[in-house]
Amino acid sequence: MAKKKPEEKIQTKSSRLQKKQALIIGASSDMAIAMSELLASRGWNLVLAGRNIKDLRDQCSDLGIRHQIVAEPITLDLMDGKGIRKKIQSLDGVPELTVCFAGIMLNEDEARKDYETAEKILSTNFNGVVQAINPIAEQLKEEGQGTIAVVSSVAGDRGRQSNYHYGAAKAGLTAYLSGLRNYLFPYGVHVVTIKPGFVRTSMTEGMPLPGPITGSPEKVARDIFKAIRKKKNVIYTLWMWKYIMTIIRSIPEFVFKRLKL
Ligand SMILES: NC(=O)c1ccc[n+]([C@@H]2O[C@H](COP(=O)([O-])OP(=O)(O)OC[C@H]3O[C@@H](n4cnc5c(N)ncnc54)[C@H](OP(=O)(O)O)[C@@H]3O)[C@@H](O)[C@H]2O)c1
Q: Which of 75, 188, 197, 225 is deepest in the core (most CB within 10 A)?
């Protein structure tokens, strides 16, 4: 009997996926610093993206030396329009994991009156993040694996008078991430939406934050890491914010509009 020929190997495109490498966007944020530390201590190589290349370079060499990992900085400004996509596409390979922390909160009164302030809040928190994530999503889709985790906010769950420009941008981001997760699911790419409540960082410096419901950047980083490992879709950090926001969302509009929130 004639021997069966071995099956021909199907030619696949060579993979550009960088295993155990994470791209951290908004790497100078206090939460991102905690996340980078946590990932580096577990042997992940890092690409730290942000506006201040000098600080990022220092951050990278410190992490590299202490954890024996490869960490490199790249300049990325989320107000850079079409330049954002180009910058992401210029990366050497496709990081298996992307975690985006970039965001900005400015004075709400200024946002109401001033075009540039409103533009900065909306573009950084929404459009800029979307333009950075889109090319990563396409690359991971081709690879058929990977994770994208993005920090949105509980502020996007319901608009409040104290920060509704910021909240609107985060609400848009949350909706984008929900759609992206739905789009990428059949391709094996996972999307995690992170909704922090209050966190003690430079963004909230000087604000009177209620202790029991305020998290530390380190706790947020641990929650994000756990959510990525367990393939969670949406997480609140600290956990009790899930219940706080359920109550806030359930307040009827005719009552809500009278509240000073
Ligand atoms: N702190 C809270 O209570 C809280 C609550 C809910 C959600 N969040 C969200 O958590 C994330 C991290 O915030 P954080 O509290 O850690 O504040 P943060 O320390 O002020 O970090 C904000 C980060 O965003 C970056 N960023 C701002 N504009 C940018 C731009 N145009 N291009 C690139 N990067 C830009 C900053 O980089 P530069 O160093 O270049 O300025 C910084 O790395 C944000 O998305 C924030 O909205 C925070």
A: 197
